[in-house]
Known about the structure:
Layout: H1 12-24, H2 30-38, H3 46-60, H4 65-75, H5 94-103, H6 108-118, H7 128-134, H8 136-146, H9 152-161, H10 173-177, H11 180-189, H12 195-211, H13 213-224, H14 229-238, H15 240-244, H16 248-253, E1 262-270, E2 273-274, E3 279-288, E4 294-305, E5 311-323, E6 328-336, E7 348-356, E8 359-368
Parallel strand pairs: 2-8
Antiparallel strand pairs: 1-3, 3-6, 4-5, 4-7, 7-8
Amino acid sequence: MAERLKDRFGAEVPARIADMIGEVHPAFDRKGFIAATLDGYEQLELMDRGRAIARALKMFLPADYPEAVDILIRSLGPEMDGSDNFGMTPFLYLPHTIFVADNGIDHFEPSMRAQYELTKRFTAEFSIRTFLNKRQEETLDRLRVWVGDANVHVRRLVSEGTRPRLPWAQRLRAFQADPVPVLDLLELLKDDPELYVRRSVANNLNDIGKDHPGILIDTVRRWSVDAPEERQRLIRHALRSAVKRGEADAIGAMGYSAAEGIRVGSVAIAPARAQMGDIVRIGFSLVNDGEAAQSLLVDFAVHFVKANGLARPKVFKLTSVSLAPGETAQFSKALRLDDLTTRKHYPGLHRIDAMVNGVAMEVGEFVLD
Length: 369
């Protein structure tokens, strides 16, 4: 069995935090803090473990918030070096960000200082949302300053923390309704020298497109003018969900037009009747019966049966291809039927479509018993 995330955030985490705080604040009750944190800790999932530590910090740090958060800042370890994947190590500071979000809204400057330092060691993309929701203008003003910061993690906080639909986080409803303040920040970051930041910009724009597809298309068209290759990649990444949804304007913005004279040729789906845990191998060809070459963006969609018996499509990325008149291209995909945290499987008929420049073309079906 794969190791659970919460198991990598065990009892050693509050002990380490206690040691770090004790080094800068000797009066800290290390034993009391650890005992309070670990009461019921084993049953908690990752985020709730972070909240439990944050509650204990509230209990055992000074009652004066500016003093308490200053102690936390002074206890922090070294900044992250670069923008590589640091695994679970930075999650040591998850409780610190929760502490700031839960207790710091009436203390703007100390909280901004804390999040500035924390995001260089973990991320403040979750905690900053409390301030965007409750003190929007002040927080936006600060983010406009941080756009030009020398630290890549601070700049990424600007784009990631303002995502309207950031996973695992509270929605930013005001920006879902009106994304203009966010777009103003993204405009300043779209050509950031770090891919780490540019991908965050693309993810934010992708979020915006789920609520405002027209704004997404207008933005990418404007950004496409004389765009360097790095920005073109950003644009393609920002359009990915709209392309999966088959939105014609998004397909067009990627440089693809309606596929004319294209048909599905040979099809092979095995097994036709599958069991949980099986791998269904899907193969099909596309044939250009037209008189002109066609540039094709090819994905495929499986209409997964849901718990209520209805089916909903999930689109999987394949590739892009150019087909000359009379030419055929082969495509294949192996689909493993294992339950995931993001998808459960239910018995029934599962239809399969090829998505060709956003248009569904029937491929076949299989039955999950």
